Amino acid sequence: MIATDLILVETARIIGFRGLHTGTQFAANTGRRATLDAPLDICAAVYLATTGDLPDVFFTDEVASLAIIGASSPAMAAIRAISEVLDSSVCETEMEPGTWVPDYIEHVSNWAATACPVEPKRPPTVDEVIGRILRAANNLAVQTSTAPAA
């Protein structure tokens, strides 16, 4: 299994190459699907970095996309790592009355697509998104590095 920090580095590369999609669905339906260079939502980029696969439903079906991404443990570990370096708290979704669970996909996707409530009152730039992804990768690399023996 590929290490989470390496998934994040690949995610940053994918977004740098393809661009960041912040609209509806998880991938921009620009007619460029055949060339595999359509911009992707940050969580779709994580999934692509994790699996090497970009399901067609990412272009058309948000509910199915959420299920596919959520079913990938390595992708969710990377998405949680990004969530941890954001300045906002993770949002929660009510699964049944009184039962709330963290919604990391929603947190990360919304952060990348939504204007900040304080200055500069705009969504993060692609470079800022890539920077946060690489910060998450660096945090993981530092946390998992082996300490020298005493």
Radius of gyration: 16 Å
Q: Helix/strand/pairing class, anyone? A: mainly alpha
Range of helix content: 40-55%
Q: Between the first and last Cα atoms, what is the distance in angstroms? A: 30 Å
Could you describe the 3D structure shown?
With 150 residues, the protein is mainly alpha-helical. Helices cover 50% and strands 6% of the residues. It contains six helices and two strands, in the order ααααββαα. The protein has a two-stranded antiparallel sheet. Strand 1 (92-96) and strand 2 form a beta hairpin. Helix 1 (4-18) packs across helix 4 (73-84), helix 1 packs antiparallel against helix 6 (126-144) and helix 4 packs across helix 5 (104-113). It is globular and about 40 Å long.
